[in-house]
Amino acid sequence: MKNLFTGAAIALVLTAGFTATTQAAVTLTEAEAKTLQFMHEEEKLAKDVYLTLYEKWNIRSFSNIASAEQRHQDQLKVLLDQYGVPSIIQSSEVGHFTNPDLAKMYNDLTTQGLASLEGALKVGGMIEELDILDLQKAIAESDKADVDSTYENLLRGSRNHLRAFAKQYSKNLGLTYQAQLMPAAEVNDIINSDQERGGHGG
């Protein structure tokens, strides 16, 4: 009887653990889960492009921001694990992507960025503008406080990265960075304002 009780108790604990895990996995809506998966791989896109461009142009901003993108990717992986959502990233190899749109973007952006320094710095700015737009959309669609908090943190980082690329654009080319995807007024407000604290390396 004692052994039976112990076995039943263990089974109950295991069942409770499984139920908790299952509940955690379904707390995100399907749309929220897919967005989180996409944002995780989009951070890899930014990192991989910057690493590739750093090898070509040896501008420290590319290396520093690539490291920050890895930290952002890690933060999103924590959320994926917390909610029991699998990552769609299948390989850490530079240039390898599961999402075909991101794979094409990597090829297109690196081609542009390797062609000229101006192209490289424009690519950096474009990626950060894209990140900002996608993060803003993700925040609007999510109602999870912890997810939104992480997205907000990444958003601060992306704004800081955009400031950094705009500064490098001016320093290396003597030109003023122009908005590529976002409204010009919004980009100008960002690049003409101070760096923000937070962003975990952003």
Explain what you see.
It is a single chain. The chain has a single domain (29-191), classed as Ferritin, core subunit, four-helix bundle (Ferritin), CATH 1.20.1260. It has helices at 2-25, 30-57, 60-82, 100-115, 117-141, 145-173, 184-191. By secondary structure, it is mainly alpha-helical. The model is unreliable at 1-26 (pLDDT under 50).
Give the rounded overall mean pLDDT.
89
What fraction of residues sit in β-strands? under 5%
Main pleated-sheet profile = none
Counted beta strands = 0
- Total helix count? 7
What share of the residues lie within helices? over 70%
**Class by SSE composition:** mainly alpha
| Outline | globular
Uncertain spans, ≥5 residues at pLDDT below 50?
A: 1-26
Q: What order do the SSEs take from the amino end to the carboxyl end, as H and E?
A: HHHHHHH
Can you say what the CATH homologous superfamily is? Ferritin, core subunit, four-helix bundle
CATH topology: Ferritin
Summarize this structure briefly.
With 202 residues, this protein is mostly helical. It is built from 7 helices and no strands.
Keywords, please?
mainly alpha, globular, 202 residues, signal, Ferritin, 7 helices
Topology:
Blueprint: H1 2-25, H2 30-57, H3 60-82, H4 100-115, H5 117-141, H6 145-173, H7 184-191
